[in-house]
Amino acid sequence: MAFFRIKSSKANGSNIKSRGICYATHEQPTIDDEKYASTLSNNGTIYWLKDLTPATKYYVRAYAIAADSSVGYSEQIKMYTLPKSNMSFTIRESDSSADDERIRNAAQKAYDYWSALTSISGFNSSIGYASGTPTADCSYGGWMRVGPNQSYQKCGTIMHEWLHGIGVGTHTIWYGSTELRQGSTSGLWQGNQVNDVLGFWDNTTTPELKGDAMHMWPYGINGAHEDGGTDVLYIGTSLIAQALGEDGLPPTGGFATPCYQFDQEDDTKYYLRNEDEERGLYSSYLYDNGGTLTWKEPAGTTVSDSAAWYITYVPSTGYYRMRNAATGRYISYSSAFKTVERSAASSSENLQLMKGRVDVGDGFRGYYIIHPEAQLTPPTLTALANNKTGANGYDLKVAATTQRWLIMTQEQVAELDSAVAESIASQLSLDLSNIRQLLGTPHSEDEAGADNALTAKLDSIEQAAANATSPAQLAALVEEAKQASTDFLSVATPTSQDNPFDLTYMLDNAGLDAADGWTYADAPAINYSCAEYYEKTFNINQTLTNMPKGTYQVKAQAFQRPGSTDDVYSAYQSGKSSVNAQLYISTKNTKIKNICDDATEKSLGGSTKKIGTLYVPNDMLSASKYFAADLYDNGVFYECPENGRSFKLGLRSTSYDSYYWTIFDNFRLYYYGSMSYDELTAISEVETSTNAAPTDRIFSIDGRLVRSGSTSLDGLPRGIYIVNGKKMLH
Description:
By secondary structure, the chain is an alpha+beta fold. Helices cover 21% and strands 32% of the residues.
């Protein structure tokens, strides 16, 4: 089967007698070839082709026939039908033949859809009547029970349970820590194939397949009340089942379902660039180097055919093959990726292509080049250092750029270079502006002439940028600008600790409008420009490289609710807190605030919860309101011992219990130059708390507000407090 929608700009109105789809296995089909047979209605008309040959290339055009019998055609598209599924089912006979028969008929109907609309292989479902089962259930692999409720002895129930059988709610890719699920166990599915299918099927530009730990919607048929018995429902469910496997939810163990993901032409030369900036994104290509695969820059201005590849697709398997245009050798895998001479390609030359989930440049996507194996981390062609390639285990993280390759024609290479150059130039302009602003921070020169040297260097970079012609040249200027800022900061010190150099511009997505730029094993949920983890351990961080020596402070708004709100408040009143989340920079860390620390006398909006006479946030929206009011701020200092160091900063928690909720926003990075760590954290001792200077707010040593509108430390536990910006011992 295949499905289409038609958009027509001129073929509208009463002068059109008919419109539809014509198709053939040869190019430029006409209405004298095959035409569509059926339509469906789902937010517009869907044209439905049936009885197509599996694993076959077709050419398709839309047509419209006017009242005068003239015919107009669209541009043709090429498509491949899926190889036919070899899934099966058996019915475990019971003492109730009537129930067995209803279940068998329902399973047969579900099978008819899935065998025609998926390429799932090796899925053999065993289905049996179980009088003690209220509705139905199914384990991964397809062992299913159906209860006596006849409203669940229908096709929709079988499909729903088969979704469990292929991994929905039953495979770690669905319920575990994976980037395919926003928020891991709850949230949106983030795979390309599902979103493309759902966007088409529901005719929407904002497709959303939502899910919890066990189920999905729409098209999950989560109960008899959702089983409308329509083709639109059953086909939609079947198409999503296929797309989930293509995205990486293995339907029968092993790995993702292979399919046609890269749109190729057999006689076109393609050029491959690694997606990673340090592995040749701006200037290098994948070459056949006499049997080995290397990425390198071309020797001259012309890219030779040793970097050109013919790519073919094998519709019977869903795999691709790549043959070098100069040597005729295939990319092959046997313990390592290499090229081999073959008169005919073998299974060693099968490559599974999977599209990345983020754009590079203006609309370009990288692809994983995978040797198919029945495991979650099959060998994947990876760009290594020193122009080498290797076979690392498949990593679906967005950050795994060294495993993805842009596959482009010569024209697309030029388009990418233009788009990337524009993007880098924009970033360079922003970097130069941010670096120039450092000069506006009141500071002293630890070396005479530091200001003039920075100004001259930035002027030189701006002039060079105006004359740059390639992404590689602009990228080199970005690095020069970073080095210029490092050189300046290493010989400059702010004149006041109250006004340090603001280096927040060095952080990616410091405001957490997105998680891009952050490193993590488990993606946080992001909403209202906040990030959260619920009942999870985590470590979300960034690494800054080539940093100047001196003292830094990282700050972030964050709090943790270490349990249920009522329990946390009760413990807090008795002076106890189980907060374990830490804000850290290099080797220094501090526990973030307890949710009770910045409770307010009035709710600030969103869903808040009352504790005693005060209010605290109770969801992401309310937390964002408290952050907007400058509450829950945290900070920690670190002294970098020498120039050129790299260090991490971020937020982490190594354990959790029930109801542990951590939410954070607005990271900032400050630099104090040669001011020492001890100087910035110096303690002013006082004999008694009554000698504390009047203050509007009193903070604990880790930055928690512990008292507002007070003139005394009386009643607070013994310890160090920040009063009027100074530390005092109480």
